[in-house]
Amino acid sequence: MSSELCEVQYQPAVKCKKSICLSDTIPQPSYIRSGILRIRQVIICRNLSTSETSTALRPFYLIVHPDLFHQTPKERDVNEESLKKLHEYMRSLHEKGRAKPTQLKFYAHSDNSSKFTKVDFTLKSKNVRDTVLTVLKSCDLPLDYVTRIPEGPEKSPAGTRKDQGNSFYTGRQMSFDMQYYSHKLPNYSLMSFLDKFHKRAHEWNERNAVTQSQIKYLQEKIKSDIGLESLSWRSDWASLRFLPCLASFDRMVQQHKDYVIDVLKGRHLIFGDKTGVSFNGDVVINRSDAIDNWLKGLAIIPAYNNTLTRLPYMEWELSTLLANIKIVHRCTSVTHIVMADEYEMRLNRILNTLRRCQQEVDLRLQGKDLSNLEMVVESEAAPLTVSALGQFLTPCTIPGAILIQFVSKNTDEVENLLHEVRRLQEIEQDLHSDCIQRLKLNQLNKDDSISCAQMIKCCERLLYDAVFIESYLNGCNLKVTRYFSVLSDGEICIPWDWESDVS
């Protein structure tokens, strides 16, 4: 706790004949009689925020999550009940600053085996930080994240001034650390980055291999049990979270097998961030929902059948209104799924505006056949542009006259671009196969923002330097992006224009 004295002018009470003034009845200290009131300003020590608490406890959640104990119902129930008590204790500390002492028991899962250990501890601290440390220490988990968070406002060196008014409300001394803002990220070459981080990537990749084998086993089991065509994961969360989702879904299948088969047999199922049916008929369920919500989501799947039937006719009409241009779907991020009802709304909007512009089509296009060109109907926030793949990207709310003018103006350019893209895609495919074989990679992927030309240049340089880097990348998953990184599942990310030490 730190305190300071600040001065404010105080006006003594004025005497009134028909009223009693407090200044007359209550003895006044000397500093009030002198016209100056000294108020003690208190700065409360900073506590962990809710988000910081969740982040700090994430390693603990990952080893006690009930879905990890689907084969041991007793331990799963114990962990579910203890997690509820832990959340209630934390919420009480955040909201009230106090909580009743609580005794908790967990079963912690080991990463390296199917064994688990029993953990008992009692929470009786009134401080969120100490409580989090108690939980982490009980399972011998790292404390680095919590210890890096300052416990309170730093003391200002003599002769320095900070924003005292703001610290009165936030409990933090506000200042700008110019050294922090002037800090620059290391400028790695590919060799220096791989030399520093390849061991970490291999360790995380090996640790992830066991989980991936369990994921593959459950995928095949569920597909076989209910007759799915495919089962995939498309979420911003790491694929490690796929395993508990599959375990929960498998438990739901065993409890409601006939119903699930009736809804999902012969369908493609995706665990994503939404619930419903995509524009191409894939069933999507939210990976963060509970089993009850999954069952409710499956109940509305048949309602999408009429929408899926209408979509091809709407695309055909749109193509007819715009000189037989081909309506396609853009291959965007794997996590971005366009739902059927959303796509129908887009088509409705652009159809309504083009139906009123057929004279403009005849005037601008003059009977041209655009069946060799491609157009993608995007959301209203998208720009009207031509993609790197030679496709017209069209927002659904664009006025028809503007769209027709843009298409007619760029027809020749897009035709040339399409021919070039097809040529580059063939080259990229050959280089992609050569890199996997030469560097002995497990997988080679690229980010959505990487064009064919950029990927080709990257692959050519990887093959040129293969003799120097193959020992680092043997058996790894490599992704071409715009930055250096090693993901939690061991995947290595490199920029497409990486610097070489040898070429």
UniProtKB/TrEMBL annotation:
Q: Name one Pfam family in it.
A: DUF4460
Provide the coiled-coil residue spans: none
Q: Where is the DUF4461 domain?
A: 189-499
Give Gene Ontology CC terms: mitochondrion
InterPro entries in the cross-refs: DUF4460, DUF4461, TCAIM
Ranges for the DUF4460 domain?
Answer: 45-141
PANTHER family the UniProt entry points to? T-CELL ACTIVATION INHIBITOR, MITOCHONDRIAL (PTHR31596:SF1)
What's the name of the protein? T-cell activation inhibitor, mitochondrial
